[in-house]
Amino acid sequence: MCTERILVLTFLCVWGSEVTAIDGSDGYKTPDFCKGFKCPRYRVVEKHEKFEVRDYEPTNWATTIVDLSSDVVPQSDRLYQYIRGANKKGSKMNMTLPYSLYLPTSENTDTLPLALFYLPPEFETPKPLDDSIYVYSYPATRWYVRSFKGHLKVEDYFNHARVLTIELAQLKKPFECTFCSCSIYNGLYELDDCHNEVAFMLNDI
């Protein structure tokens, strides 16, 4: 089980104030913590005391490898530049949520740390101008998600990820233990009502 030390770091993301539609035309209601921004769609299939199980629809993400030994913020900015027109078609889209990091759970792994921006279905995912950016499509995926409030702190992500791994181990829930997803659903200067999440992907092997 994943009881190894989880590598968590401080990260901040600057996004604009554009707000997109809250609800889908099929009646899907965007969670309140998305605050009117486009977010990945999911349904809750299980609720537990310390986490919930979510089935996510297929999603597209702009991703880039980040170096954890240096400041992640300028590295992540190239993702923002991509969605604001630094792509082969010059396509632009409004900011979405969440801003996420996929972090290796151990130093003894080939898993690379990634920063990710969610790309809604209507964005045609044109080829990036920056070769360090990749557009990745996830199939429908199940995640174990633990949510918590408060302004972003390194120790919060570390502690909540540890709690989640222990809970999953106790319940004998199979999960992908090579990386952890850490997400923030707030802007840089939002200090109140901050929604954060840590998550592990279902491992069906």
UniProtKB/TrEMBL annotation:
Residues 1-21 form the signal peptide. PANTHER family: HEME-BINDING PROTEIN 2, HEME-BINDING PROTEIN-RELATED. Keywords: Signal. This is Heme-binding protein 2. The keyword Flavoprotein does not apply. Pfam families: SOUL. One of its GO terms (cellular component) is cytoplasm. Gene3D superfamilies: Regulatory factor, effector binding domain. One of its GO terms (molecular function) is heme binding. Belongs to the HEBP family.
